[in-house]
Amino acid sequence: MNADPSSILAAPLWPHGDSALMHLVRRAGQYSTFCWSQSVDTGLSAVQYAILVVLAEDGECDQQTLGNRAGFDKATGTYIIDRMRKNGLLNVVTDSANRRRKLVSMTPDGEAMLQSMVEQAKRAEKMITASLNEQDIADLKRLLSKLSGVQETDERAR
User: Fold this and answer.
1) Residue-by-residue DSSP string for 41-55
2) Residues ≥6 apart with Cβ < 8 Å to 71
3) CB of 67 closer than 8 Å to CB of 77
4) Which of 125, 111, 123, 138 is nearest to 57 (CA)?
């Protein structure tokens, strides 16, 4: 039986040939998780950290906007936000102008948690980019932003 050429292109890294993009993206995701777990000791995930960062920038925002900015879907967001609320990191209130909308903000404990995580998150980023030069990092950010649908401004790209 002859292998379908398209299945070869979607295969993991072979010692004698090219590797599939999906395989490399998966491996990069695994390494990202590893770097985070080695650098951050608060017990919060990278998504939870992103939530705190967005709220530090915006103060308060609705759950949908928070999901768009921090990169999570509605079902995941509901679970994560509820868990962070129960841990005292977030306040969640119903919007008086639209009772279907939930407004999310950080508590003082959430602000303290964010402050304690900043250097750890920087350490995780340094770890994942240790083998890359500045141009590689800029290219990686540009390509990942393009793949993920994130439109990075010129200012943030620097």
Assistant:
1) -SS--HHHHHHHHHH
2) 47, 50, 148, 150
3) yes
4) 111
Within 8 A by CB and 6+ apart from 31, the residues are 128
Q: pLDDT 10s per residue in the chain (158 long)?
A: 455 555 555 555 555 556 677 778 888 999 999 999 999 999 999 999 999 999 999 999 999 899 988 988 888 888 999 999 999 999 999 988 888 889 999 999 999 999 999 999 999 999 999 999 999 999 999 999 888 877 655 445 44
User: CB 73: neighbour CB atoms within 10 A?
Assistant: 9
Query: Are 124 and 38 in contact, with CB atoms under 8 Å apart?
Result: yes
Contact 44, 32 (CB under 8 A): no
For the chain, list the strands marked E by DSSP: 60-62, 90-95, 98-106
For residues 95 and 124, give the distance between their C-alpha atoms in angstroms, rounded to a whole number. 36
